[in-house]
Sequence to fold (532 residues):
Amino acid sequence: MLIKKPGDIKSSEITDKKVYLNRRLFMRGAVLAASTVATGFLYRRLLAPEIDLPTPTGKAAPGSQVAPKQWGLPGEEATPYQDITHYNNFYEFGTDKYSPARYAQKLVTRPWTVSVEGLVNKPKVFDLDELTRLFTPEDRVYRHRCVEGWSMVIPWLGFPLAELLKLVEPQGSAQYVVFETANDPKGRGIPQTDALTWPYVEGLRLDEALNPLAILSTGIYGEALLPQNGAPVRLVVPWKYGFKSIKSVVRIKLVERMPTTTWVAEVPDVYGFYSNVNPDVDVLRAQSTEQRIGDWGRRKTQPFNGYAEQVAHLYDGMDLSYYH
Amino acid sequence: MKDIKFYKLAIFVNALVPLALLAWDWRRGQVGANPLDFVTRTTGTLTLVFLVLTLAVTPLRKWTGVQWLIRFRRMLGLYAFFYGSLHFLTYVWFDKWFDLRAITQDVVRRWFILVGMLAFFSMLPLAVTSTDKMIKRLGGKRWQKLHRLTYLSAAAGVTHYYLLVKSDTRKPLAFAAVVALLLGYRLFASYTKRSKPRPLSLTQQSPR
Fold:
């Protein structure tokens, strides 16, 4: 066996200590860099919600042409179009706020019909174009208060629900109005997640539905509704928590008995049928304050979301903490 | 290459990556329409992630036989406390603006806030007693007993998460399953240890 004696190794063959240390430093740097990139990737994949900034239509946000200020309420600016269209609850398309803007684009909104049926003298299936021809949509700027504790000011485009209901002539026995969201995975591209039981169902008492504040909306900021906002037609009841304002409506049915609505069926000990905005009654959490999107800090929530003058009389003599 | 000092540095840096990305997203206005909600959710989830990592150290060490993994546990635990503090501060500062009455009301009325507070405050004594000096002062046995509060914190943390979501419980349940697994392992380990007493004769014992 040939064993080299120290003397046999040429000094030029021994790795210089400096080089050796340099290589070690280099390796460490590489490990550090690679691992941080991997961690960053993991964080993006697992933890950070997917937030899209560009508007999905590719059109400029209408709110950018006309300042939100000019669309607002006295002392309250309208929420930017960007936020209204990118912070949504539409559980069919995912349960975080950013999923609807991304996934609801698959929703097929044409052709679209709304069937008005049940206890009415003239039941009718309306084509969407027919609806907008029969009832002229107008701008309605409303506060929108979510039960999760945030709120917006939204310049809706819509027409009073009462006009539609009068046209079909409700019968004397009709007490409630039931609304149903489209539920057609194949035809309409609505995925069936197991977040809730589909189709999504909401309801109003008939006198609530006839109140002039209740509208069927077809647009925001004067533009047609985007899928994530409930295209092509949705309900808006501004004095109630947002989940009452059901999206992408295909059926309106007049009935005699109070319907079991989706969230009430899901968590009966939390949600009530009426779900009027009420700072004094806890639903899910304390509802006395709200966070207006775009604000820092919270503002006080108003009874009936500030629409008490127009709607409080509907509930005269009712214990609103019981009928919440 | 068992270069613990370097590994520690690597963990230290990697654990700050989420915070750096959060700050980066913030600067670019990529935190959505409700930045408060975004930051609250992100810091909360990170707290749970680091709690899980901390709890995973011991089982992993036993399983792989790599004893020196234990040397990273303190840092992981402290990072859980760090992100928990950010989460807590976000709530107290930017959600409640230090309004003590509103916070008390919240704690009393909402289960998920109460349980969240429990999860955070049970980490506090652990962070305080995390130094070598404190370990010596308390004595290893007592220190170890105290630090079982981590179990409570993790259990309360996942409960807090579960209670606050409206209906989609997949993520909270996933975290709960992992925590249950890690705590279940400990229960199982202590049970098998107790039911199988060490043999009296020391002669046949082979070092493990």
Summary: The longest helix of chain A spans residues 17-46. The domain at 65-315 of chain A is CATH 3.90.420.10 (Sulfite Oxidase; Chain A, domain 2). Residues 55-61 of chain A have pLDDT under 50 and may be disordered.
